[in-house]
Amino acid sequence: MQSQGLTPRAAVSLLMCRPENRTKEQNQALAQMGHVQEIALVRELVDRFLSMLRTLHGEQLEDWMHTAQQSTIREIHNFVEKLRKDQQAVQAGLTLIWNNGVVEGHVNRLNCLKRMMYGRAHFDVLRQRVLYRSSTPPSPTSTRSGHAKCG
Question: How many separate domains does the chain show?
Fold first, then answer.
């Protein structure tokens, strides 16, 4: 993986990846990208922010935002401005152990289930699959035209 062949998406993915999970080639690509001053600064800011996020050290947020505002990178400035608009919530998310990850997981699961069943069954079948997780398929009378069985 050479930095000349990196797409912006692949570069961001490398920056977001945990250092212990990077391959040797990925570390080399990051080192090559680090020769550009702006990229090195972005990497430092991203690493510090991710460290706060992963270790729940939200008390460092104000210092991080001050450092980020001192950068010359417009996108970082925009990110900081968005953080400032809801700083209390961001601070809580970076500090407290509670989060809504479990709820979001269930919402994602329900949306996937709903998409899989779209156009195949009525709401009562979806409800049965969600609430009861029955191992037996629903009766044909609860599906449209009896042609789709979801179970």
Answer: 2
Q: Do 20 and 77 share a domain, yes or no?
A: yes
Residues 108 and 87 in one domain: no
Which range of residues forms the domain containing residue 116?
101-146
What is the C-alpha R_g of the chain? 23
pLDDT in tens, 59-118: 999 999 999 999 999 999 999 999 999 999 999 999 999 888 888 988 898 888 888 878
Which of 53, 70, 95 terminates a domain? The answer is 95
Exposed/middle/buried for residue 29 (C-beta within 10 Å: 0-12, 13-18, 19+): buried
Question: What's the half-sphere exposure (Cβ side, CA atoms, 13 Å) at 66?
Answer: 5
Q: Are residues 22 and 88 located together in one domain of the fold?
A: yes
Global pTM reads 0.63
Instruction: Determine the Cα–Cα distance for residues 1 and 24; give it in Å rounded to an integer.
Output: 10
Q: DSSP state, 138?
A: P
Domain boundary among 95, 121, 138: 95
Is there a contact between 91 and 61 (Cβ–Cβ < 8 Å)? yes
Spatial separation of the C-alpha atoms in residues 30 and 43, rounded to whole Å: 9
